[in-house]
Amino acid sequence: MPFTEKVGMIAEGRYMITSFVKIYQNKLRYFGDLRNQLVHGFRLDNQHYVLASDHAIGEVKSLYEEARAPKTAFSVFAKKVYVCKTTDSLKQVISTMKKELNTHVPVYDEQGKFVDMLSESTITYWIADEIDAKGEAHFEQITVNDVPL
What we know:
single chain; mainly alpha; CBS-domain; 2 domains; two-stranded antiparallel sheet; rod-shaped
């Protein structure tokens, strides 16, 4: 069965396939056609008139490498988790949350035991309560432990 026909059957769902083939089916068909021209194509004066460009060869190599070592969910979505201690400055934790685009931060005590999650909404509600009660909040002196988790 010709390569392009196999790719077509895979794309139509007649075979179990990886998402790789679905994503690159047009490129795979094109490179299949290019391969057929190179191997079986028209020759004049015993010369080929179709040549693969350096770019095309690079694309084929890139597809080959990706097919041999596909991306894993871990490699795509893995992220270093920022954690804090109950004794850390709330100001510093909020600053890091903003910088790292974190919405939730695991909180550990001094012995390394998990306490709870510190979230944007927890901080927001706590600030609102503090401002309502005292009329002001001094973030330089506040630690994560001061926030009711």
